[in-house]
Amino acid sequence: MRTPTQQAASRANGAHSRGPKTEAGKRRSAAKPFANDLLAKATVLKNESREAFHEMVREHMLCIGPRNAVEQDAVEEICSATWRLYRLRAIERKAIDLELATQSSPDNLECVLRACGALAGRNPHILLQRHETRLQNIIRRSLARIETLRRIGPKKIQKLTLVKLTPGGSTSAPKP
Question: Which of 8-12, 148-152, 160-164 has the lowest mean pLDDT?
């Protein structure tokens, strides 16, 4: 039988839980694996591991610990961009490997240099670099959004969303 002290400790620990409390929250939580599967369908290619993607999403969710749906969306955006960044790096490696196969020199570094030069002349590298920069910016913006949300708090977020633009272009905030 548990002592009153143990029961109090259990209640205190339970108060720290961030799990859903309402029926609607429980339904949303139960549906989340389905939502992650939709994210995987939109991000993971047929020859890539959906399980590895799900594991990456799970690890990001545990590490960042989104506190609401907005933060969760930002984490999912980070995961999708990170996965596509991994893919870009693999494409770049493959392009260099294919070009290296056409090079013949005893100096490996010279072969890599010539391979990269040959690829740059065909411009796929520039496209990959732009895409990589765009994905890195998505990740940075998403992390900044989570940080801002946590710094200003949910009540201030509600006030900020109530600010409306007036026809003259200035903003009008609600009266406190």
Answer: 160-164
CA gap 72, 33 in Å, rounded: 13
pTM: 0.56
| Amino acid occupying residue 133 | T
Structure tokens at 21: 């409390």
- Asked if residue 160 lies in contact with residue 77, where contact means CB atoms within 8 angstroms, the answer is no
Give the residue from 31, 67, 26, 33 showing the smallest Cα distance to 151.
67
| Cα dihedral across residues 52, 77, 69, 142: positive or negative | positive
- Size of the chain, expressed as the number of residues it contains: 176
Q: Name 78's Cβ contacts closer than 8 Å, sequence gap at least 6.
A: 60, 64, 138, 139, 142, 143
Tokens of 113: 């240099």
Which whole-number Å values give the CA distances from 169 to 11, 134, 164, in the listed order?
51, 30, 9
